[in-house]
Amino acid sequence: MARAGNTLRLGAARWINETVLWVTSLIYMEEPLHRRFTHTNHHTHTWHVGKDSQMPFDTPMGFGGWLAEISGFALLRFHMQVFVSLALRRYSQTMRMVTPEAEFPKMTRNARIMLALYALIALSPFAGLWWPIWFLAIPRVLGAPVMLLFTLIQHVELQENAPSILDSTRSFRGHWLSRFLYMNMNNHVEHHLYPNVPFHALPKLAEAVKDQVPEPDPGFVRTNWEVLGVTLRRSLGLPTKAASIRQAPHMITKGGPVQQVAKRTM
User: Fold this and answer.
1) Does the first or last residue of the chain, that is N or C, have fewer Cβ atoms within 10 Å of its Cβ?
2) What is the chain written as a DSSP string?
3) What is the predicted pLDDT for the residue at 262?
4) pTM of the model
């Protein structure tokens, strides 16, 4: 009986997780299985050039790259390209690299369903229905910069091709509101070290390993402000040393031309 009860609970938990994946992917505007497999690859090959399928910007980052990233339009364009490719069964080399072959028919089905839903949302005002625009489309557009400022500082200015997660990934201190909005993912080093630890347990994990990982960078606002300053100075050919956030050694220059290390993969 106990085993049967555990099986039922696990089945319910899986169903809830899959539902959350679908709903959040619909809002985020990315096909859910593509999201799953590319993110699994990102954890396997974190910030490794040519292997990590979720490097969302060129490195080192300049001001133009910063602006394209935090506006959300570069990401939205990528996701639309993925939707169209999947819907037309045109699977890219990256997709084939990270995805089991048997999953492609499901991804094509999902992409077509989601594109149909987005079309219905876009057409809803013509039927006198404005709530999908107010409650889905507008919050997605206005919320994207905040979401992307959170995700930007996970790896920006850190080391590509590092054998250690500690060198490629950043944790930062968080106000209670930012921790809530970000579901404790400000503990990002810890999340990459132990990705199966659920979000609600990340603060306890961070406390347990605090003597073995780098000290978190300053809070959300301060860290993003410093990243903005670094990218702006880099674009102007000025020194790029930040005051209080971690940077890989090759990110710190005295100015001059910028040598590209990696191009974005999403």
Assistant:
1) N
2) -HHHHHHHHHHHHHHHHHHHHHHHHHHHTS-HHHHHHHHHHHHHSTT-TTT-S---S-BS--HHHHHHHHHSHHHHHHHHHHHHHHHTT---HHHHHHS-GGGHHHHHHHHHHHHHHHHHHHHGGGGT--HHIIIIIHHHHHHHHHHHHHHHTTTTTS-TT-SSHHHH---B---HHHHHHTTTTT-HHHHHHSTTS-GGGHHHHHHHHTTTSPPPBS-HHHHHHHHHHHHHHHHTT-----SSS---GGG--SSS-----B----
3) 94
4) 0.91
